[in-house]
Amino acid sequence: MRLFSRKLEKLASSIPTDLQELQEWRRRLATLAGALLIGLVAIVFAWAGDFAQNQFNKIQSAEPYSPLILTPILFVIIAAVTSSVAPEARGSGIPQAIAASRDPEGLTAKGLLSLRAGIAKLFLTVGAMFGGASVGREGPTVQVGAAIMVQIHRLFGVRVTPGVIIAGGAAGVAAAFNTPLAGIAFAIEELAVAYEQRVAIIVMGAVMIAGLTSQGISGDYVYFGHLSTSGLPLTVILVVAPLAGFLGGLAGGLFSRLFLACNGSQGKWRAVLKKRPLVTALVCGLIVAIVGVVSHGATWGTGYEPTRALLEGSDGDFWFGPAKFISTIATSASGVPGGIFAPALAVGAGLGNLLTPFFPAEHAGTVILLGMAGYFVGVVRAPLTAVIILSETTGTTDVILPLFVTCLIGDWAGGLICKQRLYHALAADFMTGGEKVAASGKRLKQPENAAPVDTEKD
């Protein structure tokens, strides 16, 4: 009898361990399935975005002034659909992921990362590209990636934690840019900045799987092509890196400040713009169309083609950077969904191009690259992410140190103009009460009703 009792006790004590192992395997399978799906969706999204932008370019080539009608009309339609059907899909997508990670099982997160919001984000962003909007797909892929990861975990019956959302968003960046390391850096600097927790395992796993899926289907391409850089003399580095960082950071900070004035929860122009949202969308669409027509199409869409051309040594117009800046601000104020990653890199390339006459011609590509770094960091305030993204998207590693110098200075200069971190300030608009993000982007206070965080597994 005593022997039988001991066997029962042993069996009972093993049940929690078995259940824990089962739950852990379900978590791993959910992460694997979610990351694979994110990689596939990112590829389809990229194909759809490129197709939409190419179709718009064909229309504009056939009828040069057609965007003056087509772009404003599409802006109004997309802004109306967004506000009435899927308000969770407005804007970039990164603020939504940050806001949802504050309370991953709350009602706010369920709305921001629902299938409806994710699908709407995809179609509305593609629609914006068909209208020539100055938007990117990287930010939207963050929200879509987080939504996919959350829905897959719920399907597998696994508790959704902040780490799940962070992993999905980081995997989205990795798959969109084909840059796995940048996905990890982005998770650390932007998505997980508010938490004292270790998300490394789940993030790296999701990022690598999504990145490998993207590379396996699309090939091991480099986003902006391989940049040939000749070694910069130390005297040139000591001048161009601080200059690109300072001027780029100031310009990026100005963009963030204007962006928040139009779209931030406390933006001084927001009330005016939102009073008649369809009129705002119409006017902003007309501005984007006029700038695009005057620039002969250089400012349409992501800005990928002119940016790549500048990096590869083609002569570019000096007005490209300012024109793209105006087009991106107008697009963001219109209420049309879309990201700012790629447009920010394009504006930075234009800024770098403005500096090239002051340096030897053989170093033009590197000067433009550093201009991209300074401006991009001034906007997003994530220097490590910027260094890794630019290294991976250009296939170059011999300017890592100048990139770091530029990004650190750009981060400081951007903060002089805009004290708030852009994505974290925008995330406040998707939060309520105690979930609000501090305007300075400092560590967040954990909500009282938030589920406890498992620091070992999340």
Automatic annotation (TrEMBL):
GO MF: chloride channel activity
InterPro entries per the UniProt record, alphabetical: Cl-channel_core, ClC, ClC-type_chloride_channel
Ranges annotated as spanning the membrane: 29-48, 68-86, 107-130, 164-187, 199-218, 230-256, 277-298, 340-360, 367-388, 400-418
Pfam families: Voltage_CLC
GO cellular component, one term: chloride channel complex
SUPFAM superfamilies the UniProt entry points to: Clc chloride channel (SSF81340)
Entry keyword Ion transport: yes
Name this polypeptide is given: Chloride channel protein
Natural source organism: Altericroceibacterium indicum
Taxon lineage: Bacteria, Pseudomonadati, Pseudomonadota, Alphaproteobacteria, Sphingomonadales
